[in-house]
């Protein structure tokens, strides 16, 4: 895929996929998650899922504008693949979409080496709710329908990769 | 790309530790969601910023070994060097217009943390760059080896031209070589 110039780092300004960004150690998100867990218990999942979803609800339409596929020939499948390519530049692990079933709105998405889950290796639970929200928001914005996403495998749960099931609401 | 940030394939590293990308809009929505759901979310962001930068400082010392230790023993240089590093993390254009015996002041142009408020024309009554304040507190605390607090005094989200952060005056902060036992930090 030819998304060139995906990342630009200059003094005072980092731009990734056309969006102004900051570079943070993954521990920034970990500390936020840990503290929210402490205060809110299991509700932390909903909070981070919503944050990821709202971000992508707003961002995915912008990303569509910079994707290189000519608009008139852009299939939804291609757009989803391009979105995943953009995410691969987020340095949060290596993302891969393994199933795209547009007829039934069913998608499977994987992340190898999720930086969100890495600090929780051996914890025995799914930990990538923020990513799940991003996937629901991102894919949903592209196909124009409301989607939900559930993490079904996680490296924090002893799995080889993190895997997400995306379905219609 | 600045030398500080190393790219290996599609992954980014600083002093041997991985960095992740968070776009400013996602940052904004994360802050909003935390603000809506969690008590003291501002404090939480401040602490997360402080903790992140302190981990960065530890990796810096581990990564550069003796040369880092030499640099850290010269607080003024160390502060300038860290600000230079922070300038390549996309937080905004950071400068130190004033440092010395009484205060350390940071000025940030185009703060990434406040940018989306400006983009959305959302005027805040009070400054919003909590994580940045924590980052500056963490940097100074690591260098001075004393607890300090940082307060944002101006913010573009409130309609100001720049964001300004102050490690408040009180006890003297001595940013000179060999400050040693004389160096003292601040508590808000």
Automatic annotation (TrEMBL), chain A:
Pfam families, A to Z: V4R
Gene3D superfamilies: Trafficking protein particle complex subunit 3
Lineage, top ranks: Archaea, Candidatus Micrarchaeota, Candidatus Fermentimicrarchaeales, Candidatus Fermentimicrarchaeaceae, Candidatus Fermentimicrarchaeum
Top-level taxon of origin: Archaea
Matches recorded under InterPro entries: NO_sig/Golgi_transp_ligand-bd, V4R
This protein's name: 4-vinyl reductase 4VR domain-containing protein
Domain 4-vinyl reductase 4VR: 106-168
From TrEMBL, chain B:
SMART domains referenced in this protein's UniProt entry, alphabetically: V4R (SM00989)
InterPro entries per record: NO_sig/Golgi_transp_ligand-bd, V4R
Gene3D superfamilies in alphabetical order: Trafficking protein particle complex subunit 3
Domain 4-vinyl reductase 4VR residue range list: 103-169
Highest taxon above the source species: Archaea
PANTHER family on file: DNA-DIRECTED RNA POLYMERASE SUBUNIT I, SLR0144 PROTEIN
Protein name (Swiss-Prot/TrEMBL): 4-vinyl reductase 4VR domain-containing protein
Organism the protein comes from: Fermentimicrarchaeum limneticum
Lineage: Archaea, Candidatus Micrarchaeota, Candidatus Fermentimicrarchaeales, Candidatus Fermentimicrarchaeaceae, Candidatus Fermentimicrarchaeum
């Amino acid at each position: 895929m030819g998304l060139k110039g995906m990342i630009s780092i200059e003094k005072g300004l980092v731009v990734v996929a056309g969006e102004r960004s900051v570079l943070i150690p993954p521990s920034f998100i970990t500390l936020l998650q840990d503290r929210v867990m402490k205060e809110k218990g299991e509700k932390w999942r909903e909070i981070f899922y919503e944050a990821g979803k709202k971000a992508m609800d707003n961002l995915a339409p912008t990303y569509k504008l910079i994707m290189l596929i000519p608009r008139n020939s852009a299939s939804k499948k291609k757009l989803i693949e391009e979105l995943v390519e953009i995410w691969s530049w987020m340095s949060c692990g290596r993302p891969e979409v393994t199933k795209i079933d547009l007829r039934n709105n069913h998608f499977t998405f994987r992340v190898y080496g999720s930086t969100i889950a890495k600090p929780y290796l051996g914890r025995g639970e799914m930990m990538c709710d923020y990513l799940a929200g991003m996937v629901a928001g991102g894919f949903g914005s592209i196909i124009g329908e409301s989607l939900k996403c559930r993490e079904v495998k996680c490296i924090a749960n002893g799995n080889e990769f993190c895997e997400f099931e995306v379905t219609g609401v | 790309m600045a030398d500080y940030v190393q790219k290996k394939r599609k992954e980014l590293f600083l002093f041997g530790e991985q960095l992740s990308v968070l776009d400013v809009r996602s940052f904004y929505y994360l802050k909003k969601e935390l603000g809506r759901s969690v008590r003291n979310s501002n404090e939480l962001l401040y602490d997360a910023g402080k903790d992140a930068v302190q981990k960065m400082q530890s990796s810096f010392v581990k990564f550069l070994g003796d040369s880092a230790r030499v640099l850290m023993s010269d607080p003024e240089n160390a502060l300038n060097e860290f600000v230079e590093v922070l300038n390549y993390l996309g937080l905004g254009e950071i400068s130190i217009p004033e440092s010395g015996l009484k205060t350390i002041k940071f000025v940030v142009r185009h703060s990434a943390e406040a940018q989306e408020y400006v983009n959305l024309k959302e005027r805040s009554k009070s400054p919003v760059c909590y994580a940045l304040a924590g980052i500056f507190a963490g940097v100074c605390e690591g260098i001075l080896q004393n607890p300090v607090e940082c307060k944002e005094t101006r913010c573009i989200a409130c309609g100001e031209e720049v964001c300004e952060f102050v490690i408040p005056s009180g006890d003297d902060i001595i940013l000179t070589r060999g400050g040693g036992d004389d160096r003292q930090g601040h508590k808000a």
